[in-house]
Design brief:
Blueprint (H helix, E strand, L loop, with lengths): L2 H10 L9 E3 H18 L9 H13 L5 E3 H12 L13 H9 L3 E2 L2 E6 L2 E7 L11 E5 L2 E2 H8 L8 H11 L1 H9 L4 E8 L2 E8 L1 E2 L1 H5 L11 E4 L4 E5 L7 H18 L3 E5 L8 H8 L12 E5 L2 H10 L5 H8 L5 E3 L17 E6 L6 H12 L3 E4 L8 E9 L6 E10 L14 E2 L10 H11 L1
Parallel strand pairs: 12-13, 13-16, 16-17, 17-20
Antiparallel strand pairs: 1-2, 3-10, 4-5, 6-7, 6-8, 8-9, 11-12, 14-15, 14-19, 18-19
Length: 458
């Protein structure tokens, strides 16, 4: 989620506001009902990771808490997300309320000053934006305002859509605790924190920080959106392909030029970095893979799609209906689930392919299509996967489309498709690397790449 980029645009010249900022109790209840029925109608398998009974019980609980006569956009968004997140599907969600957050930040809003990584069940300080230098990176965050960190996380979880806690934690690391703490608890000007350091515990009083000047303008996002080619030694080339999205032709040009450079110099080893990757579209991943593949390949062993009245309306308004894929959506019966075969993708001609040793790096911040691409490469044995288990599953309910709720116009993203990895093995885990190395704190110290370079050199 490119919040920092949105910040830059909004601060310069962009006015981010909703058409309506307050909604009546009746409007919220109407959209709540529409949300439930539309999820049931459009999601390919709404109860894959939760039972229908648990989903219904949670819905009734949320509905019964609608007691006020008026709700802000932010309040309604949080309410609806509590229903959606019970599906336990990362690609089915009410997106983080970026507009509300940016408006809050631009008006002088403040945030909790510590970012965390969650490792082995512990909340570890990965960034300290406060003025208190006694709190060190690597210290454990035990409590905030005398509330144990696990209790705080339990209150944040309903605002994060994910198949499991491991993936909720990854998203919390990426989108950060300061933002989620604001979302769930609102603005607080001061905090008492309990910090653990070398088995000793200390309490500190912290002041909140300005969301814009002290946080957004200082930090770097965990996800890396840019494309990069580098030479790590006389024999090792490195590619960070960037997002699998945007202008496909520009992306292909980057990949073409990069592999021409690599093959001209005859490097023996290629490292492809899919860590801290936002994912995207299979066309991008497939084009990258075509340069290391030695045979025709697919990106999924099976792809299923569910069509619906809503999806058909969305397709007619927003898609090129001359394409076979979108034609299939329109021709199938409402509510039907069907297979769609994208066919095999051809590798590049032999003279263009890289023929040396290939390593692909992944971590818990490898999202969506980057997870699927890593699994594809692993299953075809095109490369060795190194790093830590991905947050997302390679057998993925995804292929999202979005729609707006009728009254509040709040956007909903829903999974209309299911992707099955090439091996057809489904263990409800992420991609498990061939060689596993933990990415500690997701910071500038690169344990995974350092390990790999030592392994190659030795």
């Amino acid at each position: 989620m490119k919040i920092k980029l949105l910040f830059i645009f909004s601060i310069i010249n962009l006015s981010l506001v909703y058409g309506q900022n307050q909604f009546s109790k009746e409007e919220v209840l109407s959209d709540l009902n529409y949300l439930k029925t539309s999820l049931e109608d459009t999601h390919i398998n709404l109860f894959a990771y939760t039972s229908k009974e648990a989903f219904e019980e949670n819905y009734k609980k949320v509905k019964n808490n609608v007691k006020k006569n008026s709700f802000s956009v932010l309040e309604a968004t949080k309410l609806f997300q509590q229903v959606v997140s019970k599906a336990n599907n990362g690609h089915t969600r009410i997106p983080f309320p970026i507009t509300s957050y940016i408006n809050y930040a631009k008006s002088g809003g403040t945030l909790f000053p510590l970012e965390i990584a969650i490792e082995n069940g512990k909340a570890i300080v990965r960034k300290n934006w406060s003025t208190n230098t006694a709190i060190k990176v690597g210290d454990k965050l035990i409590c905030i305002n005398e509330q144990p960190i696990q209790e705080i996380l339990n209150k944040i979880y309903p605002q994060i859509s994910a198949e499991r806690i491991y993936f909720k934690h990854a998203q919390l690391e990426n989108l950060t605790l300061p933002r989620f703490y604001w979302l769930v608890f609102g603005e607080q000007r001061s905090f008492t924190v309990k910090i653990g350091h070398n088995d000793k515990y200390s309490n500190y009083n912290l002041t909140s920080i300005k969301a814009v000047e002290d946080f957004e303008m200082k930090r770097k996002d965990i996800l890396k959106h840019n494309r990069k080619f580098d030479v790590l030694s006389n024999t090792i080339a490195y590619i960070q392909p960037g997002d699998f999205g945007g202008d496909l032709n520009k992306y292909k040009k980057f990949i073409d030029i990069t592999f021409t450079k690599i093959n001209t110099k005859s490097y023996k080893t290629l490292i492809i970095d899919l860590r801290n990757h936002s994912g995207g579209d299979d066309a991008f991943g497939d084009y990258l893979v075509s340069y290391i593949a030695n045979k025709p390949f697919k990106w999924a062993s099976r792809f299923q799609l569910k069509t619906s009245v809503q999806l058909k309306e969305h397709t007619k308004k927003n898609r090129d209906t001359t394409q076979t894929y979108w034609q299939s959506v329109l021709k199938h019966k409402d509510g039907s689930i069907y297979d769609y075969d994208f066919g095999h993708y051809k590798p590049q001609p032999k003279e263009k392919r890289f023929k040396g040793n290939v390593y692909v790096l992944v971590n818990r911040q490898s999202y969506s299509q980057s997870t699927v691409t890593a699994a594809q490469i692993q299953d075809y044995e095109f490369a060795t996967i190194i790093g830590e288990e991905t947050g997302e599953f390679p057998n993925l309910y995804a292929s999202i489309y979005n729609y707006q709720l009728p009254k509040t116009r709040i956007s909903v993203e829903v999974s209309k498709g299911k992707i099955e990895r090439i091996s057809k093995i489904d263990t409800n885990t992420g991609v498990m690397p061939d060689i596993q190395i933990k990415d500690h704190l997701l910071d500038d110290k690169d344990e995974i790449l350092e390990f790999l370079l030592k392994r190659i050199n030795n």
